[in-house]
Design goal:
Mean pLDDT: 84
Organism: Camellia lanceoleosa
Protein name: Pentatricopeptide repeat-containing protein
Structural class: mainly alpha
Shape: globular
Length: 731
DNA sequence: CTAGGGTTAG
């Protein structure tokens, strides 16, 4: 339609192949253009053609000339023609550089926008301003420096306004050194310059410098105070923040505003002091700031963190102009408090309210799904996100990857990941971890190599995934290589997690000497994860002496954890040291250590079925046990020998006296098989680690019933297929 | 849109 109108108005009497061709080109441009740009484009085109209108009427009789004179000027493409390329080219040809820069900046094409600068003889404040703004927004330090240098070399003399913008840009890009240089260069700093500098320092945690400037500045306004207060809050110094807040209140000429009170509220939430928060709440009511959505959010945050969730909800319900942030905060508050149902129900209220959830909302709900391995809900959220649209470069996208990976749906995780134009480090890490946990350690390592090639800098969390992939793949030396590369190649510091991973790696393969050496020379105290890994390794290789050392360390760190006692007892039992076994039993009784009951669950037709060990409460219990009895016979026929040599079972409270008592995962798997059509993949979740016997039994089961069976235990995913498990018996 | 607050994963 637009094409037709444009065409008629410009070429009322003539259609030639050439003009049609041009219109085809224009059409392509228009189709790519956004609504906003379309208007600009049309205006530009009509300006152009109205100028040459007289010629057009004359030439309507002689078509050849019309074509040569009237050709819409489509110059050689200087700028990428992916969208609005021709428009930008036209604008540049017309020397409308301002507009060209504006359009490129709006499309976040920073590099090209800076290129335009080089075409301009005398760039003006507007151009620089737009560019600096975008650099600031994109946190593009290098580009920002380029523009800054351009300004320095040009004839343009920046005013204080421009200086402050540059200052802010450097601060936001995290380059406080550059910012400080600019700050020191400015001859006539205004209050704003000081405030930008202070908040720059405060934001990155250089509180000392911030405070120094704050103390030495000629005069302060509420911006200065608030910047300082929020700096303290952000960097874990809530007490200093509240102290400053109190001092500020004593200055009568200073008004607390919504920014100040929200920071103060965050501070009292951080030290979990309800009465202080209530005091500030009173203050807020007195000065009438209670209608602000952000203040509300801080208020509800404070009440939530100080243990008054109902009060938080009460305030939430009373707030009239709740924005999406308030909703998100309230929903997440429920999740934090373990109230998944309340959180989800508020989320569905939100969907009904018509307010569009943002990336944070999606991320919050998806992360909850990931924690709960609620893939079903996660998928629904994903579907909703597809309908309303979401940014593929956002928390939400990486939360999706995380959710699928955590739920063991590695295919969907990969699909989302592949769809991301520029996956962030968190997505890479989730994906690597996902592969590692889902029995695809080689894919995990391949992906890590891809990450390095992409130029993204891995961090300490990424290496946890990499090291655990090596562990799962049994690649001990490769793992050690990666471990050392953390320091010498990537300049990162080893964390306790890295040490725990390497100890896991070494002790699983029985290289205890190296493991001990490493423990003795590590710079921090070994944590419980490290000792637990070591203990696990000792169990595999029956290393009684070292197991004792590891267990003793664990008894100090977490005396209440039954797993340690049970594992140690098992190691003693395997070594035939029954006296020691009895001792441990006694210690457990004396200390009142209770074993965590093992439970497994399976979701079928949106209903979750939970099983305890030896459970017979399920309505289909009879069928389940009958099925397991039949299965047991077939398994024995195939060569299955039950593992009953462990006196104290791994982690579950159970006596394996008769075959009638099955571990919860066996029951869940059995139920899955009888409740679904042949061939359906069974997916079972378990809160504890699965035991050797069940692991073997499920391997047989997968072969006998010809099903893919996925069991996610507390450690990892096991994917059983045709008699083997993806973990290759290494877990 | 010259400075400031709340949600923030692996």
């Amino acid at each position: 339609m637009i094409m037709l109108i444009l065409y008629r108005s410009l070429f009322p009497s003539k259609i030639t192949v050439d003009t049609l061709f041009h219109f085809h080109l224009l059409h392509c441009e228009i189709m790519r253009a956004t609504q906003f740009h379309l208007q600009k484009f049309l205006k530009l085109m009509s300006d152009r053609f109205s100028l040459s209108q007289p010629k057009r009427t004359i030439s309507s009789s002689s078509s050849p000339r019309l074509q040569s004179n009237q050709k819409p000027p489509i110059p050689k493409t200087f700028f990428k023609s992916n969208s609005n390329g021709a428009l930008v080219n036209l604008l540049c040809k017309d020397k409308k550089f301002n507009e060209a820069i504006e359009i490129l900046c709006e499309q976040k094409r920073l590099g090209e926008a800076i290129q335009v600068l080089d075409l301009v003889d005398h760039p003006n404040a507007a151009m620089y301003s737009t560019l600096i703004q975008l650099c600031l927004h994109q946190r593009a330090l290098e580009e920002g420096k380029r523009v800054h240098n351009h300004i320095k070399l040009s004839s343009f003399v920046p005013g204080i306004f421009m200086f402050n913008r540059i200052l802010d840009m450097y601060c936001k890009c995290g380059s406080l050194v550059d910012a400080r240089n600019v700050f020191d260069e400015i001859s006539e700093r205004d209050l704003c310059s000081w405030n930008i500098m202070i908040s720059g320092y405060a934001k990155v945690g250089q509180i000392k410098e911030a405070r120094h400037l704050f103390d030495s500045m000629p005069q302060r306004d509420h911006f200065s105070w608030t910047a300082m207060i929020s700096g303290y809050v952000r960097h874990d110094r809530p007490k200093d923040a509240l102290e400053l807040y109190r001092v500020m209140q004593r200055h009568e000429n200073l008004n607390c505003n919504k920014f100040t009170v929200s920071s103060a509220l965050t501070a009292s939430a951080a030290i979990q002091t309800l009465h202080l928060g209530k005091e500030i709440h009173g203050h807020i009511l007195r000065i009438g700031l209670d209608s602000d959505a952000v203040v509300w959010s801080a208020l509800s945050d404070m009440y939530g963190k100080c243990g008054s969730l109902e009060e938080a909800r009460h305030i939430f319900d009373k707030t009239l102009d709740r924005d999406i942030v308030s909703w998100t905060a309230m929903i997440d508050r429920y999740f934090e408090d373990g109230k998944r149902e309340d959180g989800l129900s508020l989320f569905s209220d939100l969907l009904r309210s018509g307010i569009r959830p943002n990336e944070f909302t999606f991320a919050g709900v998806l992360n909850e799904c990931a924690d709960q391995t609620a893939e079903d809900i996660g998928k629904q959220v994903h579907g909703y996100m597809m309908r309303v649209g979401f940014d593929l470069i956002s928390f939400a996208a990486s939360a999706l990857v995380h959710m699928y990976a955590k739920c063991g749906d590695i295919d969907n995780a990969r699909k989302v990941f592949k769809g991301m134009p520029r996956p962030d480090l968190v997505s890479w890490t989730s994906m690597i971890n996902g592969y590692a946990q889902n029995g695809q350690p080689h894919e995990a390592l391949q992906l890590f190599e891809l990450l390095l090639k992409s130029g993204t800098q891995p961090d300490h969390v990424t290496f946890v995934g990499v090291l655990s992939a090596c562990t799962h793949a049994g690649l001990v030396d490769k793992g050690l290589e990666y471990f050392h590369s953390i320091k010498w190649k990537h300049g990162l510091t080893h964390t306790a997690d890295h040490y725990a991973c390497v100890i896991d790696l070494l002790s699983r393969s029985g290289r205890f000497k190296e493991a001990e050496d490493l423990i003795n020379q590590m710079p921090m105290k070994p944590d419980k994860f490290l000792w637990a890994s070591l203990l696990g390794g000792c169990r595999i290789h029956s290393n009684v002496e070292l197991a004792k050392r590891a267990a003793e360390a664990l008894f100090v760190i977490e005396p209440e954890n039954a797993v340690t006692y049970v594992t140690l007892a098992n190691i003693y039992a395997t070594a035939g040291k029954w006296g020691e076994v009895a001792k441990i039993r006694k210690i457990m009784d004396d200390r009142g250590v209770l074993k965590k009951p093992g439970l497994s669950w399976i979701e079928i037709k949106r209903k979750v079925h939970v099983f305890l060990v030896g459970d017979s409460t399920h309505p289909k219990s009879r069928e389940i046990h009958d099925f397991l009895g039949e299965l047991s016979k077939k398994m024995k026929g195939e060569g299955y020998i039950p593992h009953t040599d462990y006196v104290l079972h791994d982690v579950e409270e159970e006596q394996k006296e008769q075959n009638l008592s099955y571990h919860s995962e066996r029951l869940a798997v059995a139920f899955g098989i009888i409740a679904t059509p042949p061939g359906t993949t069974i997916k079972v979740f378990k809160n504890l680690r699965t035991c050797v016997d069940c692991h073997t039994a499920i391997k047989f089961t997968s072969k006998i019933v010809e099903r893919k069976i996925i069991v996610r235990d507390s450690n990892r995913f096991h994917c059983f297929e045709d008699g083997t498990c993806s973990c290759k018996d290494y877990w």
